[in-house]
Amino acid sequence: MTSASKIKGSKFERDAAKELSVNSGEWKRIPGSGSLGVILNDSSLMGDLNGKYPWFKKGIKSQNKVGYGTSKQITVKREWFTEIREQAKLDNKYPCVLLKFDDVKNGDLGSAKVICFNFDTFNSMMSDLEELYIHYLKLLEKDFKNET
Predict the structure, then answer these.
(1) Which CATH number fits domain 4-118: 1.20.120, 3.40.5, 3.30.70, 3.40.1350?
(2) How many CA within 13 A on the CB side of residue 91?
(3) pLDDT interval class at 80 (50, 70, 90)
(4) Taking the CB of residue 83, how many other CB atoms lie within 10 A of it?
(5) pLDDT tens for residues 10-66?
(6) CB 99, CB 74: distance < 8 Å
(7) What does each C-alpha distance from 78 to 31, 72, 96, 97 come to in angstroms?
(8) What are the sequence ranges of the domains in the chain?
């Protein structure tokens, strides 16, 4: 029999994959919430979700957590970040933790779900975007010179 917390976690994984698969994003659930990857020692099957965007050099691997608090506060464990960093490193992906506050039914519903990146990961992602931006500026400059 499946526990209520596992059902809640699986629903959050499905909902998160769907909500994040916009703006050219492609997110997919990992079967068994990554437990199969640990058993088979296959890093591509570890974590809860894999995501990718065409403008980042690497994909994103997430660990998802729901039900670790109330609608007003949530308990965050450092071990979640350590675990997903280790798993993401094996797959050359950016690690993140997706969190959902429990039982949010009114007020600012948008603040009920958050994505957490550590500083190193965030800076690496910004570096990817900076390279893309510099490339874009060079293309604009080239187009401008061709027009004149």
Answers:
(1) 3.40.1350
(2) 27
(3) very high
(4) 17
(5) 999 999 999 999 889 999 998 877 777 777 777 888 899 999 999 999 999 999 999
(6) yes
(7) 24, 20, 12, 10
(8) 4-118
